[in-house]
Amino acid sequence: MPEITDIATGRQPRPSDLDKFPAAFSVAGEKQEKAADEETSILLQRFSGNPDVKKARAEFEMAQEVEERFLHDFDGVDFTMR
Questions:
Q1: What is the pLDDT of residue 39?
Q2: What whole-number distance in Å separates Cα of residue 76 and Cα of residue 80?
Q3: I need a labelling partner for 38 at 20 to 30 A (CA). Which of 14, 22, 32, 66 fits?
């Protein structure tokens, strides 16, 4: 654990192998997330006549927008300097 702390705080250089992990996870996670979002949208559209489903769809779409804004605002921010 001390090595990870030293790397995160900049006391030790960041090994180049660490850059491979976020890239691998972001691609896999992004694909899965997009698939889940598409399936959720299809399911909500299928039952669009139900008032509760309309409310759920609106909340889902709002959550999607919030996530997009969050990713836009914090993409590339280096929190190690705090």
A1: 87
A2: 12
A3: 22
> Whole-angstrom Cα distance, residue 24 to residue 12?
23
* pLDDT band with cut points at 50, 70 and 90 for residue 30: confident
- Domain assignments of the chain as residue spans, ordered by start: 22-75
The size of the chain, in residues, is 82
pLDDT class of 76 with cuts at 50, 70, 90: low
CA–CA dist 62, 77 (Å, integer): 24
Written as six digits, the tokens of 82 are 């705090």
Amino acid at 73: D
Alpha helices in 1-77, H assignment, sequence order? 2-9, 20-46, 51-74
Hey, what are 44's tokens? 């909500």
Q: What is the spatial distance between Cα 11 and Cα 13, in angstroms, rounded to a whole number?
A: 7
